[in-house]
Amino acid sequence: MNKTIGMLAHVDAGKTTFAEQLLYHTNSIRSRGRVDHQDAFLDSHEIERARGITVFAGQAVMNYNGSTYYLLDTPGHADFSAEMERALRTMDYAVLLLSAVEGVEGHTETVWQLLRRYGIPTFFFINKTDRAGADVDRVMDDIRTLLTGDVADLTDTLTIGEAEKENGQASAILDDSLKMFLAERDEKLLEEYLEDTRSAEEWTDALIGMIREGRVYPCLHGSALLDQGVTDFLAKFDRLTVTDYASAERAREEDFAGYVYKIGHDENGTRLTYIKALRGSLGVREFTSYENPGTGDNESGEREDDVSERVTSLRIYNGERYTHTERAHAGELFAVTGLSAAQAGAGLGELRGESVPFEMTPTLTARVEFPRELPVKDVLRIFRMLEAEDPALGVVWEEELQQLYIRVMGAIQLEVLTSVLAERFGMKAAFGAPEILYRETIAAPVTGYGHFEPLKHYAEAHLRIEPGERGSGVVFEDACHADELSVGYRNLVGQHVLEREHHGLLTGSPLTDVKVTLLIGRAHNKHTHGGDFREATLRALRQGLEKAENVLLEPCYRFRIRTELEHMGRVMADVQQAHGTFDPPETSETHLLLTGIVPAATFMNYAVELASYTRGRGMLGLSYGGYLPCHNAEEVVARRGYDKNADPLYTSSSIFCAKGAGYSVPWDEAEAAMHLL
């Protein structure tokens, strides 16, 4: 049976040490490494060993009791949450570690919400019970209060016996308190509990089913460092987890379906596509398909929805090492070469076109300061490789300004990127101070007009631009009749609308949350050339923005603050002062739980302040809350000093031709000069 399990935790909860113990007890490694000794098996990068934190999702393979486990050790630091989230969709089960001293921390709640969003069955392990101040009962209460009331402590309520010879399954005995716990959550079980009609095996099956359905969350505890409670966890986890992947023989008969969870490059620069097979099998020299990650237009302007490419090699990774295999089957994690453009989050085969938007989105942008003696094309090639591995980087190259920008979650990520560039590519680069990544949209529909007609060129496009739903980005729709414009040219308009982020008029920030519809366009049989519709489209887009009511948007956090009740007034005042809003507070006799939404710009450093006045007992959880109208738009616009008329990338004027020469018509006069009105 193939099972993929993910290890998740707040930073420093002992996740990597726990993973080392699991690998050791399944004979996957000969000796146990330690993070503080810089020899952990899954922290294989020098950056991870030097810093003592997990930065990249490491993968290992272990075998136990007839099952093959694919173990993913994910980053625990908030700056690398995007890397952690990309691994979530591969997981059949998750193990969420908490420290017996610190308990539920801010990032723990963020991880928990993501696990629930993806519907991943979850086990808890309360670690570090050997440390001074450890209190398992308090942490259990925190889990029940802050995460879920359906947590069940299996340390003493479930007993695993020897494996039976007939089916290889170990016996499991639930004590009466655990049976009652399950019965309270299911009416049928309650009847059978009262009548005492269920066998021990049936009670075990019920527990397995409720775990898988997310109705019960098992919890165990111990000390990974001292190897306490690890083998008990392993035995119980193995007995209570099941998957439905087809056998290798049956998988060969099914159509392949998989999910890309990571892109990497080996030491030779070969592109690696990491895949979780969900159905069927995939072999070397076989073709698989995925949705075209580009705009989807070929040379004739026609849509290419799918890309089909041949797998040239197939690798099973175990830490840094890998073995070649000829075929991978459902339930396995593997890497392939030969797929040139598949992106993290993409579906393959029967799942092509299916993707889930990621929750963890960077709210900061930083300028890359690279040595100017380096060829720009080489710098861009390196950053495009890094962007393929981490799509959240959102690399933007401003050609006219010769400036490179990336998006990041925080300052620690920039420090790691600096090390990656130096160690992996030999590039000494630095980054400007991270700034808030603003965006712009419009408040009401407008129509933009663009005309491009210098001598021997011709294109005209009319675009309706209207506000879209928050978080929708830029959406294109073609409403132009085929009699007015050929399908190739209409697709070109869509390509140019979607090919890059467009500057808004207020600060030059990316335009978002708009729907752009092509109403009508015109080409010339003789004079329309490549690039003409790009000019007409961008001018139409800009001309529409000139007429629109532009709105500046800022990134926001959803927050959860838990602190002692005595700090209630201070916390609520701080949120209001930060221009945030909050839901009605939830209070107990001693504690306050406050949730709401607040601008990232005013709250990104609040954790330090909260810890200070609560003497470390306050807890702050932050997650991406989308974009909302900026609370201090006028101040930001003035500070940015963006001159819309001096943007080298955009102009709102149109070009017309008279007497063999082209001439410019300003945006406010262009509409009257259009040929299609």
Search tags:
677 residues, alpha+beta, Rossmann fold, 36 strands, Elongation Factor Tu (Ef-tu), domain 3, 7-stranded mixed β-sheet, 5 domains, Alpha-Beta Plaits, globular, 6-stranded antiparallel β-sheet
Q: What does this protein structure show overall?
A:
The chain is of the alpha+beta class. It has 5 domains: about 1-155 and about 215-240, Rossmann fold, CATH 3.40.50.300; about 270-350, Translation factors (Elongation Factor Tu (Ef-tu), domain 3, Beta Barrel); about 365-435, Alpha-Beta Plaits (2-Layer Sandwich), CATH 3.30.70.870; about 440-550 and about 645-675, Ribosomal Protein S5, domain 2; about 550-635, Alpha-Beta Plaits. The chain is about 30% helix and about 30% strand. The protein has 19 helices and 36 strands. It has a 7-stranded mixed β-sheet, with helices on both faces. A 6-stranded antiparallel β-sheet has the order 16-15-18-11-10-19. Strands 25, 30, 31, 32, 33 and 34 form a 6-stranded antiparallel β-sheet that branches. A hairpin with a 6-residue loop joins strand 26 and strand 27 (about 460-465). Helix 6 runs antiparallel to helix 7 (about 185-195). It is globular and about 95 Å long. The model is unreliable at about 295-305 (pLDDT under 50).
